[in-house]
Design goal:
The complex is a heterodimer of chains A (294) and B (275). Chain A is an all-alpha fold and 294 residues long. Chain A is 72% helix and 1% strand. Chain B is an all-alpha fold and 275 residues long. Classes of the chains: A mainly alpha (294), B mainly alpha (275).
Chain lengths: 294, 275
């Protein structure tokens, strides 16, 4: 009997241990280190010195960091909703019964299998000025603007956003496709008899019925937007002059280029709080929406 | 009827155009990788060169230890998945089968890992890895993922849907707890295990930033981090066939596996979400 009582704890222990050491402990460690000044490249500050909320205060008074927050906001709000919208439209288009529809789905889905870093090297080549296929096609369509996308201060962030869009739209699409295929066709037939057009059907039937898919997709999309910087790393290095630096990239720079441990810990906490805020509001939103139905 | 036919054709063309746009980057990179090194893609070139060549692949192999990278990636994904399958199965079983004090607390505690992504913790985890003295090892890349809240969550769902009568039959037959896991819980949840395995493998195959930070030598670097070596070539220009070949070497195995097990992959990704 005694053995039975401790058995469940023993079974859970490995998972508990790894979550403690690599999730909970580092969160607490960052929190405590964020109250200290510690810079590994300055002899005077190699050992941590307590400085209260100075790191946070410095960050929010730093023009550069405000810019990083601004870029992050643009990046997240610019990619997530548009990618989800594209995924939804693609799913609708591909929920048809064409011959070879499987190949089309594959065409949109294949980027999600690729590592982001190789998606980035593929696009590095695709975006080459002068003869890159991207610019060649654009000038064929009459585009005469600047061509060096990743090195242009006004275009760099936009360029990495395009890649995220390209990579994720097909991934989110399969969740919508699965959702669409579960919807009863009788509703659509009824709507058709009532003379409802495409927009009416989409807004009054499809979208409300796929609300759960949308909430799920937006949760994973937001989290992935905050934690994927591989393409920025390869293509723009956050530049030019910080124009494509987002929160996680800034975190990497602060810790591994500037060796500023205190500040990096504060940025870690800010990143975690931001992520938690997004996840929590999504969960709350989904539960609120579920209540009237149940 | 004609109108309907026309609508279908237009729709088909729209999809076709978008599909071509979508595959263009990968196809173009693939094409560039086949050009001979003496005839690299340059201004005005958009398609295959005069002849097909594996020269870029050969050169990519000579510039970086791809064999080693493949092996490292393989060791990494198998190690992570292997450990995860054990930790996750045991925890999910405990949460399903037993009632004990603090069950709810422990479950919530573990779920924290889903809310605070490990990527965000790269700074403190870096110092933990240093403290553990395993910097620059494959173990260091994988160890933060040895416990998986996502896996526990997913498997618990699957375990909960196993009919009670089946478990009771096992108990009557005198199964000990590990026999229940082996003969009832695992066989009844194979699709969930497959789904989890696929998402774990593709996640760790693709991960880049953490391996890059936590390793410095080729002896422990996986494919994704190894690819960085080639990105400067692209910046210097005119090495596109080489960069493309290196990229293809990184993406081929997973892409081919995907093409073969397409249905399983997609099921796996879906499974990891909607249930």
């Amino acid at each position: 009997m005694k053995q039975k009582k401790i058995l469940p704890y023993v079974l859970i222990f490995p998972t508990f241990l790894f979550v403690s050491v690599f999730t909970v402990w580092p969160t607490l460690l960052s929190l405590s280190k964020s109250f200290f000044k510690q810079r590994l490249n300055i002899a005077k500050y190699r050992e941590p010195v307590f400085n209260g909320l100075q790191n946070y205060s410095d960050l929010f008074h730093d023009h550069e960091f405000i810019n990083v927050l601004y870029n992050t906001l643009i990046y997240v709000l610019g990619t997530v909703p548009l990618t989800i919208l594209a995924a939804f439209l693609l799913a609708q288009l591909l929920n048809n019964k064409f011959k070879g529809i499987g190949y089309f789905r594959l065409a949109f889905f294949h980027p999600s299998i690729l590592p982001m870093v190789s998606a980035a090297t593929i696009w590095m080549f695709f975006l080459t000025p002068d003869y890159g296929l991207f610019n060649t096609s654009l000038s064929f369509l009459g585009y005469t603007g600047p061509q060096n996308w990743t090195a242009n201060p006004n275009l760099a962030l936009f360029a990495v956003m395009i890649i995220a869009f390209w990579k994720n739209a097909g991934y989110y699409m399969i969740f919508y496709l699965a959702g669409l295929q579960n919807l009863p066709s009788s509703i659509y037939e009824a709507a058709k008899l009532d003379g409802a057009g495409y927009f009416r059907t989409t807004f009054s039937i499809t979208l409300p019925l796929l609300k759960r898919s949308t909430l799920f997709i937006s949760t994973i999309a937001f989290i992935s937007a905050f934690q994927t910087i591989d393409h920025i790393f390869v293509l723009t290095k956050g530049g030019p002059s910080g124009k494509s630096t987002v929160l996680l990239y800034y975190l990497w720079q602060t810790r591994f280029e500037n060796l500023d441990v205190g500040k990096a810990s504060a940025v870690t906490i800010i990143l975690i709080v931001t992520l938690l805020a997004f996840t929590m509001s999504n969960i709350m939103l989904s539960e609120k929406k579920e209540v009237p139905r149940g | 009827m004609v109108k309907k036919h026309l609508k279908q054709t237009v729709l088909f063309l729209v999809i076709l155009v978008f599909a071509l746009i979508w595959i263009a980057p990968v196809v173009w990179s693939f094409v560039a990788a086949t050009r001979p090194l003496s005839d690299p893609m340059g201004r005005g070139d958009v398609w295959f060169g005069h002849s097909l060549s594996l020269g870029s692949y050969v050169k990519a192999f000579s510039l970086a230890p791809f064999g080693r990278y493949y092996l490292n990636t393989f060791i990494l994904v198998t190690m992570v998945l292997g450990v995860q399958l054990i930790t996750v199965t045991l925890a999910a079983f405990a949460f399903t089968y037993y009632d004990f004090k603090g069950k709810k607390f422990l479950f919530t505690f573990i779920l924290l890992q889903m809310m605070i992504p490990t990527t965000a913790l790269l700074v403190p985890n870096f110092s933990t890895i240093r403290t553990l003295k395993i910097y620059d090892t494959i173990l260091a890349i994988g160890i933060p993922y040895f416990g998986s809240a996502f896996g526990v969550f997913l498997l618990r769902q699957a375990f909960l849907s196993i009919p009670r009568s089946l478990v009771d039959a096992g108990i009557i037959d005198g199964c000990a707890w590990w026999q229940l896991i082996r003969h009832i819980y695992i066989p009844s949840s194979i699709p969930t295990f497959t789904a989890f395995a696929i998402s774990s493998i593709s996640w760790h195959w693709n991960e880049f930033l953490w391996p890059l930070i936590i390793t410095k030598s080729d002896a422990s670097r996986p494919l994704t981090a190894g690819l960085v070596r080639f990105t400067q070539l692209g910046e210097m220009g005119a090495q596109w066939s080489l960069l493309s070949a290196a990229t293809m070497l990184v993406i081929f195995p997973l892409l081919i596996a995907f093409l073969i097990f397409q249905r399983k992959f997609i099921q796996g990704f879906l499974h990891s979400g909607l249930k």
